[in-house]
Amino acid sequence: MKKRGVIDDLILYRLGETEFLLVVNASCVEKDVAWLGEHVVDGVMLCNERSEWAGLAIQGAQAPKFFSAITDGRTLPTRNGVDDLQHEGRRIVICRTGYTGEDGFELFCPAHDAAFWWNALLEEKVQPFGLGGRDSLRLEMCYPLNGSDLTEERNPLEAGLGFFASF
């Protein structure tokens, strides 16, 4: 029997009745798309639009203030919520699902608008912090990390994800 592990820790957002946004780890895109392609059912269209989108994440106690500032005080999604909106003629998908143990938001936009949003956040004095910083927050919360705790060789129970399993 082939051992089954975890390919990726990904998030699926429902943007509308029939539209979804799947966010995967950049290093896992090819594996994720291949697996999903093997399991897609009739009536579902899977599109890999990774080159068309950009994502920024803001984590920490000040995150709501920063996002409110760059969206002119717009009401932001509640925890685990998502909002697909237009702001200053630009599409922006704001999600509140931070996987770091901190409150936070993820901003997804067309790739050609990424510099606009990056600069708007810098103007609000957001401090850039790379993926390693995000991972350190996850480690502090004892959250599993893809490629470390979550691997294709380690099943979900071995990775400490038993609370997600239903027997």
Quote the beta fraction. 15-25%
Unreliable residue runs: none
The CATH topology of one domain: Gyrase A, domain 2
- By DSSP (H or I, 4+ residues per run), the number of helices equals 4
**Order of strands across the main sheet:** 3-6-5-4
Portion in helices: 10-25%
| Strands, count | 6
Globular, elongated, flat, extended or rod-shaped: what is the shape?
Answer: globular
The helix-and-strand class reads alpha+beta
Question: How would you sum up the major sheet?
Answer: 4 strands, antiparallel
- Secondary-structure element series: EEHEHEEEHH
The first-to-last residue Cα distance is: 19 Å
In CATH, what is the class of one domain?
Alpha Beta
Q: How would you state the average pLDDT, rounded?
A: 86
CATH superfamily of one domain: Probable tRNA modification gtpase trme, domain 1
| CATH architect. name of one domain | 2-Layer Sandwich
What is Rg?
A: 17 Å
Key traits:
alpha+beta, 4-stranded antiparallel sheet, Gyrase A, domain 2, two-stranded antiparallel ribbon, 20% strand, 6 strands, 167 residues
Plain-language structure description:
With 167 residues, the chain is of the alpha+beta class. It has a domain at 51-162: Probable tRNA modification gtpase trme, domain 1 (Gyrase A, domain 2, 2-Layer Sandwich). The protein is 23% helix and 20% strand. The protein has four helices and six strands. The protein has helices at 29-39, 63-70, 114-123, 131-140, and strands spanning 11-14, 20-23, 53-59, 82-87, 90-95, 104-110. The strands form two sheets. Strands 3-6-5-4 form a four-stranded antiparallel beta sheet. The longest helix is centred in the N-terminal third of the chain and has 11 residues, at 29-39. The two termini are 19 Å apart. The mean pLDDT is 86.
